[in-house]
Amino acid sequence: MVKAGYDKLGSRYRTYYEQAVPQRYTNWLTAFAQLLSPGTRVLELGCADGIPTARYLSQHVNYLGVDISPVQIEHARVNVPMANFAVADMATLRFPDHSFGGVIALYSIIHLPVAEQPALVNAIYQWLKPEGYFLCILGADKWTGTEADWIEPGTLMYWSHTDAATYTYWFKEAGFTVIDSHFVDEGNGGHTFFLLKK
Length: 198
Description:
The chain is of the alpha/beta class. The protein has one domain (2-197): Rossmann fold, CATH 3.40.50.150. The protein has seven helices and nine strands; from the N terminus they run H-H-H-E-H-E-H-E-E-H-E-E-E-H-E-E. The strands form two sheets. A seven-stranded mixed beta sheet has the order 3-2-1-4-5-9-8, sandwiched between helices. Strands 6-7 form a two-stranded antiparallel sheet. Strand 8 and strand 9 (189-197) form a beta hairpin. The longest helix has 12 residues, at 24-35. It starts with a helix and ends with a strand. The mean pLDDT is 95. Residues 42-132 form the Methyltransferase domain. It comes from Spirosoma pollinicola. Keywords: Methyltransferase, Transferase. This is Class I SAM-dependent methyltransferase. One of its GO terms (biological process) is methylation.
């Protein structure tokens, strides 16, 4: 469902978010990049079309973006030709331990069924080098469901997330230190920002 939805939207996904998302992306990415040494290997889970995250981070680090949507990856390779991209399902990714100095996942992990998310959190911890950083935007409250006309009529999309306290527990159980955690207000609802360190 997630793959089909992003494939269907294509570049219209980015057009929508350029109108809807405020300056916070720039603030998040700037702060994240400042934590990393130039050339650090960084993985983005759910990179979509590469804007803004890949475009910004690839100027500072050795960037790899993965996304389940071949259409979004095709756009990303055009939008950010200096970065590396791959079509992949984050739930089945495999990397050697200590492969990355940083991992970033903005609103992407919550496309996985919540039951699969703790295993991914543990995998991310293993992929990170000691002292590596993980920045993610996750749910604030428990909810799993779909939207039938997401962004445009006929686009079906799925989300699944637990509450911020449960995510915090999972992170600490995996071994992460929580550097920052706060609610991201988004009109009638919101999500949770996490910055974590291995």
